[in-house]
């Protein structure tokens, strides 16, 4: 299997001109799709609306067909793409743009007139346009579906319909486009009996959770950011350097302020602040994307994993004495360094908006003079329970740290 990252068309960057062409094409496509398929991903990209559509459609259409395209971007045929564009760009301006801009763009890239560059806005729009013949076919036959790039979720009324749609509609259209289905991602079943993954979410029994694959991918990114090679050990200021053993403020300020100590080499910086900033970028992106799901437990576990990796990153070095600094890296200490929390993102969203994607009891009960839904009462209980659990864990961690410190002091000081 070819490595996409090594293909020659991978590093084509965005330019002002390509972005303007992409916006022009997108405007034309939106006019075409707005009436026929208003929930198409090229028309709007509200993931909360898409997830709501899945919930609503799964009631009327209990069965599904899920698939995506094998090596989609590398497989896009330039000649077929140009034929599709000619049907969309019928005006003089469109035809001129096709000859003077899009055709030269395609000629610069690809292997044997195939392939589009990744990470390019114009490629994103062209890739969206390439599968429009299949989309229009499904729309004409009144087969409801959702699509994000090359990922499809087709809603079906009965058990036999997924196989029939696949053989009679999808496969013939894909053959015309010289595309193949990714067999590993081909899936069909019943919504309330079989889990289905779409847009990184797993939908099962009316509830959205985070796909395990996406959780593992996120953890790999965290490991990459907090990985230390033997040649890149970051040293922290020794706790023993401080005259007052009870005052740990110097360590916090050194870590949070990205200060560095002149050690044996005199040039090794502590890049904790920069690492935390990179971690926060990943946390904010992942958290705000998946906060719509029922993911509180997953977020709590991931927060614990991130803190564990950060502790290891800070404390790991060749000098074993420096590991003493790890003893004071409590959850509060790490939070004071500026590390964001996935759980905080989820809690803030759930408190402000409620949870639109969780099954809730619509019947409200009176509590005093106020009405409170079952979900809100449960949410309050879970929030209180979470803080109690967090405080208990922190207290246990502090107790353990004090014991370890006492043991080290006993070994150093003579009795």
Automatic annotation (TrEMBL):
Lineage: Bacteria, Pseudomonadati, Atribacterota, Candidatus Phoenicimicrobiia, Candidatus Pheonicimicrobiales
Organism: Candidatus Infernicultor aquiphilus
CDD domains referenced in this protein's UniProt entry, alphabetically: RT_Bac_retron_I (cd01646)
Pfam entry (one): RVT_1
Protein name: Reverse transcriptase domain-containing protein
Annotated PANTHER family: NUCLEAR INTRON MATURASE 1, MITOCHONDRIAL-RELATED, PROTEIN YKFC
Organism domain of life: Bacteria
Residues annotated as domain Reverse transcriptase: 1-203
Family: Belongs to the bacterial reverse transcriptase family.
InterPro entries per the UniProt record, alphabetical: DNA/RNA_pol_sf, GrpII_Intron_Splice-Mob/Def, Mat_intron_G2, RT_dom
């Amino acid at each position: 299997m070819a490595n996409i990252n090594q293909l020659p068309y991978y590093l084509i960057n965005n330019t002002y001109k390509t972005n303007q062409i992409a916006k022009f094409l997108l405007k034309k496509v939106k006019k075409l799709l707005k009436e026929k398929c208003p929930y198409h991903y090229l028309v709007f990209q509200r993931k909360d609306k898409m997830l709501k559509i899945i919930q609503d459609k799964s009631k009327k259409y209990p069965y599904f067909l899920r698939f995506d395209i094998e090596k989609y971007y590398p497989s896009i045929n330039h000649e077929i793409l140009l034929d599709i564009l000619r049907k969309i760009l019928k005006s003089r301006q469109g035809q001129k743009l096709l000859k003077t801009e899009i055709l030269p763009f395609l000629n610069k890239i690809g292997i044997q007139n195939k392939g589009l560059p990744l990470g390019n806005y114009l490629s994103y729009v062209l890739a969206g346009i390439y599968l429009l013949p299949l989309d229009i076919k499904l729309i004409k036959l009144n087969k409801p579906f959702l699509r994000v790039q090359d990922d499809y979720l087709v809603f079906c009324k009965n058990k036999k319909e997924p196989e029939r749609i696949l053989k009679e509609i999808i496969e013939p259209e894909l053959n015309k486009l010289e595309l193949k289905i990714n067999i590993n991602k081909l899936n069909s079943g019943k919504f309330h009996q079989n889990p289905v993954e779409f847009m990184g979410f797993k939908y099962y029994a009316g509830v959205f959770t985070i796909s395990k694959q996406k959780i593992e991918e996120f953890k790999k990114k965290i490991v990459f950011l907090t990985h230390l090679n033997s040649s890149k050990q970051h040293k922290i200021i020794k706790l023993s350097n401080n005259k007052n053993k009870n005052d740990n403020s110097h360590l916090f300020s050194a870590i949070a302020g990205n200060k560095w100590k002149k050690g044996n080499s005199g040039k090794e910086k502590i890049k904790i602040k920069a690492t935390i900033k990179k971690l926060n970028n990943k946390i904010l992106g992942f958290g705000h994307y998946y906060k719509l799901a029922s993911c509180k437990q997953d977020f709590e576990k991931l927060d614990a994993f991130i803190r564990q990796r950060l502790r290891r990153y800070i404390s790991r070095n060749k000098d074993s004495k420096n590991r003493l600094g790890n003893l004071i890296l409590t959850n509060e200490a790490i939070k004071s360094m500026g590390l964001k929390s996935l759980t905080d993102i989820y809690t803030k969203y759930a408190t402000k908006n409620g949870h639109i994607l969780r099954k809730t009891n619509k019947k409200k009960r009176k509590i005093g003079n106020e009405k409170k839904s079952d979900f809100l009462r449960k949410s309050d209980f879970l929030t209180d329970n979470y803080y109690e659990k967090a405080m208990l864990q922190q207290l246990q961690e502090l107790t353990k740290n004090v014991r370890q410190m006492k043991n080290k002091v006993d070994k150093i000081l003579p009795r």
